[in-house]
Amino acid sequence: MTTTDKRLSRRRAITAAASALFSERGYGATRMADVAAAVGLQAGSLYYHVESKEALLAAVVEERVGVAVEMLEAILDLDVDPVTKIRRGIEGHLVVFDEHADIYRIFLSERLDTIAPDLATTVDLRGRQYEDLWQRLVEEGIATGVLRADLDPWLTMKAIVGLANSTLFWFEPGGRLSSTQVAERFTTVVLDGVLAPA
User: Fold this and answer.
1) Could you say which of 154, 173, 186, 196 has the lowest number of CB atoms within 10 Å?
2) Which of the following CATH numbers is that of domain 65-194: 3.30.160.20, 2.60.40.10, 1.10.10.10, 1.10.357.10?
3) Which residues, other chains included, contact 81 with Cβ-Cβ below 8 Å and sequence gap of 6+?
4) How confident is the model at residue 4 (pLDDT cuts 50, 70, 90)?
5) To the nearest whole percent, how much of the chain has pLDDT over 70?
6) pTM score, two decimals?
7) Under DSSP, is residue 95 helix (H, G, I), strand (E, B) or coil?
């Protein structure tokens, strides 16, 4: 392994540790010394890899901020019916949240605008992109007659995203249901309430 590879590996370990600590304790309660200890470094040595706690938060967020958007874009591009896209979108949302729960807890629980305004702008933009994609998916369902014509696309999108987001606060990996099983049940709740009459 080259020196560059070692530095990249160390940097990834640092951002992973910071992500877990920020999620578990909160940004304000996490000290740089806590992050250093989690990766086996002296506190002073951590600054060789990252210049500040704010820069570390930015690295954590920027590394994964686009994952959900990319997932839903890929689903929208599929040549399948809107109902299948909705099913896959809900499942994809829960899988992404399961795999990256720490970062999404940070998005939903921290006031990024007071910590790093530029970073907050980036996160807000990605959030709006994600919601716009969901609204397009609902509108596609309405246009094809699969979803009820009287649905409010924006409100329906908010209901779907809000339902899926709620798992961050109660879902336990290894619990009674897997994220895929929760997604299946959420999909049934959503679609039974919005499918057009046969």
Assistant:
1) 173
2) 1.10.357.10
3) 144, 146
4) confident
5) 96
6) 0.77
7) helix
- 61 contacts 106 by C-beta, under 8 angstroms: yes
Structure tokens at 92: 């994809």
Are 183 and 90 contacting, i.e. CB atoms less than 8 angstroms apart? Answer: yes
pLDDT at 142: 96
Q: Rounded to 5 degrees, what are φ and ψ at 94?
A: -70, -35
Token pair, residue 72, equals: 């839903």
Total residues found in the chain within this entry? 198
Q: For residue 37, what are the CA distances in angstroms to 12, 41, 42?
A: 15, 6, 7
CATH code, residues 3-61:
1.10.10.60
Strand-pair partners of 147: 195
Residue 133 has, within 13 A of its CA and on its CB side, a CA count of 23
> Do residues 78 and 85 lie in contact, with contact meaning Cβ atoms separated by under 8 Å?
yes
Rounded CA gap, 46 and 48, in Å?
Answer: 5
Res 198: pLDDT: 66
